[in-house]
């Protein structure tokens, strides 16, 4: 039966994430949305003085500070057994900026038992707080700037398929 005067449907029960926040999601037990203030308050802040090369603008010098990506990512409880190195080595982190730029970091790259790269989610760049634009990925070991994703809005954490391709020998 049609009800032309029915009240409009309620909005879906998802509240928009606050400006400048990022959401950890994917193959995780505890998806979580964090503001830059959360990133500053809940984890030790590490400093990184970096130079990276931009294809269009040349060398860029910046000083960042923020928590280690691996410590923040652990908060979402990725679905691996943390005691098993092989399981951890199968995971990836896809880091997305609000403008659609996105890049990959492997769990092994940032894990202390593997690459141990001090990758940060910066809360401050050159003494400017990043609360409003959102955090920036900092990859001090990279020579070029493409993975310095700014205004990070989401980090998907998960493992790609481990199957052998169709037709591969058993
Ligand atoms: N969100 C977002 N972050 C980004 C990019 C982008 O297009 N979008 N470009 C990257 C590239 S190619 C470079 S070189 C650096 C440039 O950083 P800067 O402008 O802060 O020096 O940002 C990186 N981060
Ligand atoms: Mo760049």
From TrEMBL:
Ranges for region Disordered: 1-22
Source organism of this protein record: Streptomyces zhihengii
Protein name: Molybdopterin-dependent oxidoreductase
Domain Oxidoreductase molybdopterin-binding: 21-156
InterPro entries listed in its UniProt record: OxRdtase_Mopterin-bd_dom (IPR000572), OxRdtase_Mopterin-bd_sf (IPR036374)
Top-level taxonomic group: Bacteria
């Amino acid at each position: 039966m049609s009800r032309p005067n029915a009240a409009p449907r309620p909005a879906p029960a998802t509240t928009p994430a606050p400006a400048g926040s990022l959401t950890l999601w994917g193959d995780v037990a505890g998806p979580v949305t964090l503001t830059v203030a959360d990133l500053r308050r809940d984890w030790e802040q590490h400093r990184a003085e970096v130079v990276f090369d931009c294809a269009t603008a040349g060398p860029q010098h910046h000083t960042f500070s923020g928590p280690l990506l691996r410590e923040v990512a652990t908060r979402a409880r990725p679905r691996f057994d943390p005691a098993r190195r092989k399981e951890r080595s199968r995971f990836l982190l896809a880091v997305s900026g609000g403008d659609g730029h996105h890049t990959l970091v492997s769990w092994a790259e940032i894990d202390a038992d593997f690459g141990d790269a001090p990758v940060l989610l910066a809360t401050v760049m050159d003494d400017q707080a990043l609360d409003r634009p959102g955090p920036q990925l900092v990859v001090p070991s990279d020579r070029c700037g493409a993975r310095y994703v700014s205004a990070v809005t989401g980090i998907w954490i998960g493992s790609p398929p481990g199957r052998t391709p169709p037709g591969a020998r058993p």
